[in-house]
Specification:
By secondary structure, the protein is of the alpha+beta class. It has one domain. The protein is built from one helix and two strands.
Length: about 130
């Protein structure tokens, strides 16, 4: 296949075209096991997407120019409420491209569970509180 590529398009994008919203969650079929529709880019829509798990490849670099998706950071902390709040840790996840919900499921949830196991008494249950 012979492709004519206009290189000038690679370096021009408007900051107003960036789409910072998290994509709509998938609709699951009645069995609840798989998405009822595949993740597909919306045609005719300008802006950079947040990558959903189905569109993400952990082995690909996403730092090209121009950008192909949104890059963002998450700053988080783990607090334990024992009468007063005690900070157990805080961290920043940088240069993320996977949508926040998918990043939680893929990475952050297990990281938090490991920290809880290491830094809190084992005989207690804890619930997350989003702020």
């Amino acid at each position: 296949t012979n492709l004519d590529l206009d290189i000038s398009q690679w370096y021009t994008y408007n900051e107003d075209d960036l789409d910072y919203r998290t994509s709509d969650p998938p609709v699951f079929d009645n069995r609840g096991a798989s998405p009822a529709h595949a993740s597909q880019p919306q045609r005719g829509r300008l802006g950079l997407p947040l990558l959903q798990l189905a569109d993400w490849d952990p082995n690909l670099p996403y730092d090209g120019s121009p950008p192909t998706c949104i890059h963002y950071s998450i700053e988080w902390k783990l607090l334990l409420k024992k009468g007063r709040l005690v900070k157990l840790t805080n961290d920043t996840e940088q240069n993320l491209v996977l949508a926040p919900g998918a990043f939680w499921d893929q990475t952050l949830k297990s990281k938090l569970q490991q920290l809880l196991a290491k830094k809190t008494p084992r005989n207690k249950c804890y619930e997350p509180d989003e702020t």
